[in-house]
Amino acid sequence: MLNKPRLLTPGPTPLPEQVRLVMAQDMIHHRKADFKRIMEETQQRLRHLFGTVQPVLPLSCSGTGVMTAAVTNLFVPGEKVIVVDGGKFGERWAKIASGSGLTVVTLSVEWGHAVTPEQLQAALAEHPDTRGVLVQNSETSTGVLHPVRALASVTRALDVLLVVDGISSVGISPCPMDEWGVDCLLTGSQKGLMLPPGLGLIALSERAWKRAETITPPCFYFNLAGERENVRKNQTLFTSPVSLILGLNESLRMFMETGLETVYRKQWALTMLARTGIRRMGLDLLAPDHFTWGLTSVRLPDGVDGARLLEVAAERFGVFMAGGQDHLKGRAIRIGHMGWVDWADLAAGLHAVAESFRVCGGYIGARDYLEQGLQAYHEALDTGYGAL
Amino acid sequence: MLNKPRLLTPGPTPLPEQVRLVMAQDMIHHRKADFKRIMEETQQRLRHLFGTVQPVLPLSCSGTGVMTAAVTNLFVPGEKVIVVDGGKFGERWAKIASGSGLTVVTLSVEWGHAVTPEQLQAALAEHPDTRGVLVQNSETSTGVLHPVRALASVTRALDVLLVVDGISSVGISPCPMDEWGVDCLLTGSQKGLMLPPGLGLIALSERAWKRAETITPPCFYFNLAGERENVRKNQTLFTSPVSLILGLNESLRMFMETGLETVYRKQWALTMLARTGIRRMGLDLLAPDHFTWGLTSVRLPDGVDGARLLEVAAERFGVFMAGGQDHLKGRAIRIGHMGWVDWADLAAGLHAVAESFRVCGGYIGARDYLEQGLQAYHEALDTGYGAL
């Protein structure tokens, strides 16, 4: 009872009480009128969120499931795709694509850095038979935001589908797919959408649908054309994850009530809070230039053990964050500030980082990191978010 | 406020309040100690429920997802399987298997009837190169219980894997897989387990694991060997459906507290209640001999429209049931009595059936169907359940 637990991981995120209460209601049947009405309402809200006139399909699976669905419904074995690999989830694209029999060209980017449209253009020139580009909008393992808008301006002029993993960006930073020319945008429920894990969402552009219509999906469970047919009847192809969809409708209602622009401004401002505070402490940011609006990755100085720091933050301060992955294990921490997290939660997180850092033998630069961070937050809220 | 809504569909089923409240708690992280402790506890309870020493793997998907996982992890394209097809879900096995490139031999059974071990033996004699048999324990579309124990006594003597869809049987009627020699048992969360849809569970026998270890699963998302490796660390391969697993732990706690035998006796007794009441009304049961313990299917006389009957039951009495599927559309109704349903709910359901039947122009035989049904319930509870 000393500390309230605060979940500042880059998903799953804390859940609003009203979403949890909606999901706690007794079961309703997924083939009956009440559920269909909710599906219909949710569909309108999802299209607004995704920035598309196309249906947004709900799938009962984790984020990796919906990534698998995208790859297997848009490409056939032997086709070539370029995978932007700048972290753990870029790697996952490559594993899914090669596991599905595609020819994978890896466009490697240093962890912490974003791919450039020029790099993509060069790779496409070298591989003119490329059928698609698989990229993260936000690479959750590093906190990098890849420039999807600029990448789309390259692919939309070609017969190349741009497939974007928006798992830690949808509902966090804008990615209006029709306006930008994104061919496939997908996400999971447990990040920006303030829901438990277990629901995937995916939308295809018109030209991506044309491609999908020519393909018989190899995995019976992931059939986007079949899902589309059902969504038109406010249904899903197989048993709907009813509770998650009820929760989704409520969380989207909150989004619409607040306004998408305000949500994005908040996310940008939180990012300014985190980055300013961390810099003021004298710590290094893992993603110097192109950064996600939902998490902040911090590189630790030698001699400070990240695993221990996370333990101290959890045990002494009740703050739960994530560590670095692969070669950054123990060398970095990731502070999540997506979903149902506000400035005060994040300020508590920064204080826990600073104090735990000292316990682990680190030395904090300036003591006014909270004041400076919160100042940056308020200024950002007033001035609007950065360019995309 | 005139009627309380009563969900008597064969899944999703009503949810106990304590399960809903557990699921309504704020999010915890799936890679942290608290969640691992719950996974460990759940695993012990699941093994008891499945009657196996093998791990029971939780997957984030619907029932069809876990059926897909079974087929793609146990067989490779070109291999021959026998599918017992006696309803909508037998058909689904066939679609998944042929969609995965297997050679499918269909063992057709009339809707409403169970396959016999002799029929299976004859099919296996005709197709000695068969690698597996895919069957439902309970065929949800008709309410038939296939004799899994007898089928397993055929397959266990051969190099043939018996793969059992226990979606509407696990937690409803016994299917102790190790004792019977079942090679794969799977289920979904929204039936006997008193949870929302979205969680699949699957266990393999030792010899099925030997087979699975030789196969590279074609769909990246469904990798049972990878899941097993993670379950040993009280984790899942991809992001865990956290809320559903918290709920599962609570619903399994209720099972253990009540005792599995008592749960099965209750389910059997409810089935006696439904069947006695329906017969007493003068209506025909769709499954005359081998019947599921979680739902009762009723064939309607000509001139009574099933869709209209369901509407009347919902609107006037607040009772939600399911209709017949395919050629039984409008010609049958299905009364669910699995999961969090008790004798009083089911009695209310029978009364709604009788009254709605009269509204739709039907004629009820005896007026004492409730009394007789409840009598049968109490007698069954006292005498134990039928042979399997």
TrEMBL record, chains A, B:
Classification via SUPFAM superfamilies = PLP-dependent transferases
Name the InterPro entries on file: Aminotrans_V_dom (IPR000192), Aminotrans_V_PyrdxlP_BS (IPR020578), PyrdxlP-dep_Trfase (IPR015424), PyrdxlP-dep_Trfase_major (IPR015421), PyrdxlP-dep_Trfase_small (IPR015422), SP_NH2Trfase/AEP_transaminase (IPR024169)
Which is an annotated GO molecular function term of this record? Answer: L-serine-pyruvate transaminase activity
Q: List-wise, which residues carry N6-(pyridoxal phosphate)lysine?
A: 191
Pfam entry (one): Aminotran_5
Q: Which GO terms describe its biological process?
A: glycine biosynthetic process, by transamination of glyoxylate
Q: Which regions span the lipid bilayer?
A: none
The superkingdom of the source organism is Bacteria
- PROSITE patterns, per database record: AA_TRANSFER_CLASS_5
Q: Which cofactor does it need?
A: pyridoxal 5'-phosphate
Which UniProt keywords are given for this protein, alphabetically ordered?
Aminotransferase, Pyridoxal phosphate, Transferase
In this chain the Aminotransferase class V domain maps to 26-325
Report residues binding substrate: 334
UniProt similarity note:
Belongs to the class-V pyridoxal-phosphate-dependent aminotransferase family.
- What is the official name of this protein in its record? Aminotransferase
Organism field: Desulfovibrio psychrotolerans
